[in-house]
């Protein structure tokens, strides 16, 4: 009855019943899943000062020197710049008093950068922006959010259209001036 009340596992009950059948005293601890005999309970020492030897643990000098601790790496110089270019540059400076080579290189680099990057046409950018806004508004209407964004998007589109009109007027004035200069005695109206 006591075993049932203490909620022991089947293994623990068998273990205890073996002790009872043999007539031995019951163990103080019954491990829940192990058939091993419980090890004698002793607590490990909480704080044992380590025993220091009287002899210091220093390595002899011969042992230290025999290792790689004192070996230095050999210096291996590397060319960090092109020495031939440096010689040519120095010759140019001494001959002309100026560093000619670098100026030419800088100018050619600047010229190539300017040639590679064409100026973006603002009118084309505006056309693309208007198209993007129209697509955005169509997507929002498809999602049922058209009322929320319609006023904002239409305002932005009208601003872009106004900017496009200004650019168009400037271009037409420039074209008109070019055309009147090309045609001598032409009608300016």
Automatic annotation (TrEMBL):
<dbReference type="InterPro" id="IPR007914">
    <property type="entry name" value="UPF0193"/>
</dbReference>
<protein>
    <submittedName>
        <fullName>EVG1 protein</fullName>
    </submittedName>
</protein>
<feature type="region of interest" description="Disordered">
    <location>
        <begin position="32"/>
        <end position="54"/>
    </location>
</feature>
<dbReference type="Pfam" id="PF05250">
    <property type="entry name" value="UPF0193"/>
</dbReference>
